Amino acid sequence: MKTILYMLLGLLYLGAQAQNIDRAEYFVDADPGVGKATNVPVGSAGELVNLNFTMPTNSLANGFHNLYFRVRYETGIWGLYEKRMFYVAAAPADAENVTAAEYFIDADPGVGKGVSLTTASGGNVQFSGVISLNELPAGFHNLYIRVKSGGRWGFYEKRMFYISAPGMDVTNIASAEYFIDSDPGLGNASPLALTSGGPQITQTFSIQVPVGTTDGKHYLFIRTKNAAGKWSLYERAEFTVDGSLPVTGMELTARSLPDQTALLKWFTYTEINNSHFDVERSKNGLQFEKIGEVEGNGTTSETMYYQFTDSNPLPGMNYYRLKQVDLDGTESPSRIVYVLFSDTDKETVLFPNPASDYVNVSYEGNEAEVLISIYNSNGQCLKTDVYKTAETIQVDLHTFSPGIYHVMLTDGIRKSILRFVKR
């Protein structure tokens, strides 16, 4: 028997700016040591890599097992491992077609009593849907999904998520760069000339598609570097090389203005039978409503510039997108952008350092709770707990051996990583 695994892996590098990943490995249940596990091909090096491989399970006993992944950066430093649980059945005959599925949040109402999910008939099935979170309070929650086959319900699959009034910490942007399809590495892509600075920049760039680019789908990636010299993750946008498209371009940007309005700007390189643009807004990035309409320019080969002002944005995070509408009614959506109407300036302090019996963390989070995880120098997670952010948090270190540790804190909006020494 064997299990086919398809994983998208992006691990956090604790320390300086993110590095490209050049190696990956996995092990089951027992860690043979960093760099000594089973190698997984990563293809081209990058900050994020896709792992697609076959893992044999013939030698594993029936029952639950743990699969661990970790990656190495070009600097030679290995990251923390990522853990997934899986189950080895007695024989393939045990697997029967899935006939039902259900989900519940936080509290189990009982097998067969969760919220039903629509599934297609068959063995391995896929389902998708929108789960309403309107009645849930802010904070950490758990989503559980289980399926039924052969008249029996299986184990549930659990995922943690967070509900909050969105926010972010920002620093001034110093530079930006872009690349198409293939990442040449941090700082090696094509530079974008910035005309202004600040934590948020709204600027229109004209990026020419390289000569010889084949027809079909391609990806444009843009990332920025802050004043501290740290690169951000990239923002990806899909585009198609095809001279028959009704509109090319339509790169949407949005920013807040001092008068608490949101300014949306976009442009097109060419237009063919373009009727208008519908401007849509959402409070959660899923359900959108139309808030305005901007007339298009029909058919033109000139670069056209547009803008729209949302005079009454929602409190907190506002998500925006466009729908380009042809004269025949055909619609093409833009990417989603967002604007936050709040400001946070929070600081995280850890003391004493070095520590002996306890370490204290002062965390001025945006929300009432914070998730704290402590990792040792080998990347193993030794402790994970949820604390209140109203007061200084005290973490007991009596069971920790002397050495260097990393603390990761997140309230669902911010994320901080600190290091301390246990004496």
- Annotation field: number of helices: 0
Low confidence ranges: 1-17
Shape call: globular
Cα(first) to Cα(last) distance is: 48 Å
Strand content: over 45%
CATH architectural designation of the largest domain = Sandwich
Helix-strand pattern, N to C?
EEEEEEEEEEEEEEEEEEEEEEEEEEEEEE
Notes on the structure:
Helices cover 0% and strands 51% of the residues. The chain is an all-beta fold and 423 residues long. Strands 16, 17, 18, 19, 20, 21, 22 and 23 form an eight-stranded antiparallel sheet that branches. A hairpin with an 8-residue loop joins β14 and β15 (235-241). It is globular.
Summarize the structure.
The protein is mainly beta. It contains no helices and 30 strands. The radius of gyration is 25 Å and the shape is globular.
Architecture blueprint of SSEs:
Elements: E1 2-9, E2 21-28, E3 38-40, E4 49-56, E5 63-73, E6 82-88, E7 98-105, E8 115-117, E9 139-149, E10 152-153, E11 157-163, E12 173-180, E13 190-192, E14 216-226, E15 235-241, E16 247-249, E17 253-256, E18 262-282, E19 289-300, E20 304-310, E21 316-326, E22 331-333, E23 337-341, E24 348-351, E25 358-363, E26 369-375, E27 381-388, E28 393-396, E29 403-410, E30 415-422
Antiparallel strand pairs: 1-4, 2-3, 2-5, 5-6, 7-8, 7-9, 9-10, 9-11, 12-13, 12-14, 14-15, 16-18, 17-18, 18-19, 18-20, 18-21, 21-22, 21-23, 24-25, 25-28, 26-27, 26-29, 29-30
